Amino acid sequence: MDSFLLRAENIGLQINQRQVLDNINLSIKPGEILTLVGPNGSGKTSLVRVLLGLIKADYGKLQRKPGLVIGYVPQKMHIDMALPISVLRFLQMGIKANIDETSYMATTLGVVELLDQPLQSVSGGEFQRILLTRALLRKPDLLVLDEPAQGVDINGQQQLYQLISGIRDEFGCGVLMVSHDLHLVMEATDQVLCLNTHICCSGHPEAVSQHPEYLKLFGASLDGMAVYTHNHNHSHDLSGGVVDHQHHEGCNHDH
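Above: the chain sequence. Below: its structure as tokens.
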């Protein structure tokens, strides 16, 4: 049997008598980045909650590697603006990490200069990096990111996805990522699963971006410009250095 961190077989879920997930199969391996894409209401967040054990599927089988440690970055986190808390205190709340480990991880993710600042003063992009830092301090086997670029500008999104790819390379963890925008995550994912209650298509991002089922969901709003070629002849390490050369084809969509 192939090694895996988490495997779902024939997962189904109904909420208020509506079928939210139907016969979902997926497997996440160590060191692999798997991205879930799909329109609003397609079941992406519900599937993540099932995989995390936050809600129970109505049927199907869920397997986890024994002792699996998960680091989770939710889609939204509300912080009370009146709460006087520093970035450092937020990172250490409920996590067994000493100051050296915290400083190293904060340096790696580019937030070390923020440690003494009030959490409420950071930008959207900085907050996402802080949440990633906190998740990685758990030393996870699997990192689960639900719309990690939410509230981040376009340049910050590209940097964030490069950072996620670098995290996988440095720490060797598997990554399950949810995104509504495949072309932005093309460079930072190994496999894509397109979800619309059921699995419409899955595979390498280039193949999914040109699959008829994917284009049916996302291509109609592009006025005939669903598929484009995106050249990216290098990738970056965590500090922004160029490490190798790649070529990808992608799909640009907006919804």
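Residues 80-139 form one domain.
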